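Predict structure. Chain length: 212.
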Amino acid sequence: MTMKKTKQEITQDWLVTNESQCIPLTVVSQDLQEDSQPYRLYRFLTDVEDIIWEEQGDRLRLQKICPLVRRLLNSSEWILTSFGLPDLETGWSVQILYDEPDFALTVQTVAWSPQSISPIHNHATWGIVAIIDGEEKNTFWHRSPSSKFPDCIEQVGEQILTAGDILCLMPDAIHQIEAIGEEPTISFNIYGITDYSKRFEFDLEKNIAELF
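Prediction complete.
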């Protein structure tokens, strides 16, 4: 299993803005020392932590962290097979790759069964989703409140991601995930500190948002 595509296929980095607009991401390369050694997880975490402390803006953080995610997955091949099989009942599973008390990052792989669909949700933090295998359709929504329905949302676009594509999410981005194709969809995910008072699951039919 590998993130590399054929020469005819092009991997893409995407940014989903706070208004849920999905646009190509312009990455900011880091001046990191290149050597013959693998780019290991502990080095990646240290580099990400440095960026978090140095940069206050989430968009610039994503621009700087995204290329590090790609470098990590291209170098540390063990991550590409570090996932659990999707749960038969829920249709998904999460494998935690690193967890440390008071460390401001969530690092995990996620596996979705084919045709599984997530709730419509935000993350209330910046996040990066790198597709390792399979295909995933992201549908994007933004808030469209009215006096009668203050939690109303409307669809603003969608994007299909395949192996090697990376999706960067701003904290207020709202999306829904659908695993398409005949094989499970596997991704490497990293998130900042979640503000659980602002993380919601949206019910499109009832026009309500509930803490998630």
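Summary: The chain has a mean pLDDT of 92.
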